[in-house]
Design goal:
This protein is an alpha+beta fold. It contains eight helices and 15 strands. The strands form four sheets. It has a seven-stranded antiparallel beta sheet with strand order 2-3-7-8-11-14-15, with helices on one face. The chain has a three-stranded antiparallel beta sheet with strand order 1-9-10. Strands 4-6-5 form a three-stranded antiparallel beta sheet, covered by helices on one side. Strand 2 (about 40-45) and strand 3 (about 50-60) form a beta hairpin.
Length: about 350
Amino acid sequence: MDKRSGVLAQGPKLDRMTMRIRLPFFVMLFLPIFSAAGEKYSFERELMATRFTIVAYAEDGVAASKAAEAAFALAEKVNSVASDYLPDSELGQLSKKPIHIPVSLSPLLYDLLDHSRKLAEFTQGAFDPTLGPLTKLWRETRGNKRLPDPQTLQAACAATGWKHFTLNPETRSITLHQENMAFDLGGIAKGYAADLMLESLIAAGIPQSMVTAGGDIRLGDPPPGRDGWNVAVRTFDLNKRDEILVLSHAAVSTSGDLHQSVEIDGLKYSHVLNPSTGLGLTRRIAATVIADSGKLSDPIATAACVLGEEDSLLLKKISGVRNVKIRSFQEPPSIQSFKAPAKEK
């Protein structure tokens, strides 16, 4: 490996400027080229419709490469189990199961759904893993740039709701209570995978590592000779400098409408869905969350966009959430005001 240029152990060159360009959304990493203790190795893989990157400081390049491969294998496992794009995934097969009959789950999917349901309850549905029918409909909407007709939208909304499934930890099973249910774990799976990847790297003896998965970053021990990893969070104001955070042993996730939106009839819609309307958010908003884990920062960033700046204050009360930062660009229309569904009697 060329220490001066930071050539990847696998894949193309990844220097400081490349890192700035490739990290999506609003978070950038700045990394040193030289290391007094251990060399810097970088590895990349296209997964979950985004780019996963591992940056690791290690004495042995062969060991670093082997550890990176094992970490990527874990992310591929999460994708194969929890992807709603793959019809044969375990998650995809759930939509074909009959209601009111328990279905056994793998430990990985059970853990994902259990964590997701708890967060859905705490956020009162601002983060909801059951938005699969709406996700599918919204993908079609973004493709043809036409809003769905009211009847189709109403039917999709009726099939969603985190209260419509229950989990049994003793049998590690799920029971669906609503017809036509479908899950979408896109708001948590990448953060969850990043957690597993970092745990794997640490177990392989490479704790000075960082994993990026799209808009999610998972940080281990600081790079050699540094207090932490320098993470720059954009302010969205061209007249202001980026805010630089020095972090380690943390997760940072950003969600918003900067890169994934569609304009229909003169109105811009975000890829982030509002569970109460079934449509993408129309207010320009972004949220950056710092937490103890990626499986927490990832979904909380989504929930923060749905809730908005004022209502997102409750998210800071969640154990493990360190900070929630909201940036709004316009006042939301009244239709976008998120309201939790009425409690069942």
